[in-house]
Sequence to fold (208 residues):
Amino acid sequence: MPKIALLNTKGEKIKDIKLNDEIFGIEPNNQTIYDAVVLKMASVRQGTHKVKTRSEVSGGGRKPWRQKGTGNARQGSIRAPHFVGGGVVFGPTTERNYTKKQNKKERRLALKSALTYKANDKEIIVIENLKLETPKTKDFKKLLEDLKINGKALIVVKELTDNLILASRNLRDVKVIETHEINTFDVMNYTNLVLTEEAVKMLEEVLK
Fold:
C-alpha cells in the first residue's frame, strides 16, 4: 500500500497513513478516463447553436418568375438553399442529443485510475480536517500557503460548511466539493487533490 503523510491545517506532518491499493494503486485504464472526460464535457454542452431552414427564413412567399418562357431554370422560392439569403441545408439544430453513456463499473474504474495517477505523481495531499473559523478568503489562502499548494486545487471534504463555501468561492483555481461529488474530470483537471482523512475513508469504502 502506498504511504502518504497526514498533515494538519498548518502543513505539519502528524503521521503516515496507508492508501488502499484497490483505489490508489491499480493499473490505470486510460480509455475509461478518456470516456469519462468526454462524457462530462458532453453533458455540459447547451446545444443552443441553430440555423434556419428554408421554411424558417423570412421572404420567398411567391415564385421569383413564372415557370416557363423566361429561359431561366424553374424556381419556386428565392429562399431556397442555393440562393443568397436562403435557408441552410443540414445545419446544426437544437434537436441534436449530446448525451453519452458509461456504465457504473467503467466510471468507477476511471475514477480509480485517475486517483492512481495522482498518487503516483505525488499530487495528493491528505489533511486531518478542514475547518475554518471565519468565512474570509484571506484565511483560506493562508491555509493553502501553509499546505504549500501551488496551481489549481480540488479539495474534497466529507461535508461542506458555510465558512468553507464563502471563503473559497472567490478563488478561481480552487474547487471545494463533498466526497460524493468527486468525478474523473475534476480529478484530472486540477493539479492538486486535497483530501480530508474522512474523505479518504469514504472513498475507500465506496470504491473498493
In short: DSSP finds seven helices and six strands in the chain. The two ends are 14 Å apart (CA to CA). The mean pLDDT is 91.
